[in-house]
Amino acid sequence: xxxxxxxxxxxxxxxxxxxxxxxxxxxxxxxxxxxxxxxxxxxxxxxxxxxxxxxxxxxxxxxxxxxxxxxxxxxxxxxxxxxxxxxxxxxxxxxxxxxxxxxxxxxxxxxxxxxxxxxxxxxxxxxxxxxxxxxxxxxxxxxxxxxxxxxxxxxxxxxxxxxxxxxxxxxxxxxxxxxxxxxxxxxxxxxxxxxxxxxxxxxxxxxxxxxxxxxxxxxxxxxxxxxxxxxxxxxxxxxxxxxxxxxxxxxxxxxxxxxxxxxxxxxxxxxxxxxxxxxxxxxxxxxxxxxxxxxxxxxxxxxxxxxxxxxxxxxxxxxxxxxxxxxxxxxxxxx
Length: 335
What we know:
Blueprint (H helix, E strand, L loop, with lengths): L2 H13 L4 H12 L6 H12 L20 H13 L5 H8 L3 H11 L2 E4 L2 E4 L4 H20 L1 H7 E10 L6 H6 L5 E9 L2 E9 L6 H18 L3 H4 L2 E3 L4 H4 L1 H10 L2 E2 L11 H14 L7 H13 L3 H20 L8
Parallel strand pairs: 3-6, 6-7
Antiparallel strand pairs: 1-2, 3-4, 4-5
Helix pairs in contact: 1-2, 1-3, 2-3, 5-6, 7-8, 7-16, 10-13, 14-16
């Protein structure tokens, strides 16, 4: 969500008498991974408490732009929310500030770290841990009651950005001028890829677009996976606003999909994040593509070359990860 929109929500909930912690938890339930960080919520709630009315930053005449200014922190946060797999080097290059400043803002100002190659809060709240614990218990019990049936019905989805150029070194990064990239939204199961939707740079996925893709997914399953629709699809998707929007949920229900619960900030419990995308990214690392079509061809070639055991392994790993999440009382599986 845009910064101004987030601040409007913070102001509204503050006016209702909610504390910064309550505001952040409420926004997490509604916006999922699109929610601003707790530090941002706390800062703006304090501003509104002091009587501030505007949603915009005050002008800073004569103040130099540094990596830790409010403007830069907001800009870095927006980039991470839009692409939680973005690298520190890419953010630094895009905003024209130093690598060290970006890393310091991410870890100190925003309190984030990388889990399964995604930027997430370094410290989960008690509520977030509880959600992860309860969902892991429920899904593990369901899986273990009939593993074969679960895997037969299971489908998962997530998105990742694929860049035209993925530099191998810091020196190569300085030489890169292309900023082209394509978003790949991959729907897959234990047999392989069912469908991929590609989106060009500058375009965004909204709820209406995603709802249309869910209907396309139903048709693709009917064509490629005999008996899966009849058995009842179990769909595990992200927790971003586009996935949890009313129009998206309605489309999933219309298609007969059962939406499995997935807690916010949990890439370590999502097969695309902890398995499929890291392997794809590793394969493409250091390669250069002269356009979107070349990127798409490379993605299709790599995923198409994998046999069913490759995909089965990634999804079967969920049992181990749910178990580990329960053992650590809802904390991150990866540290």
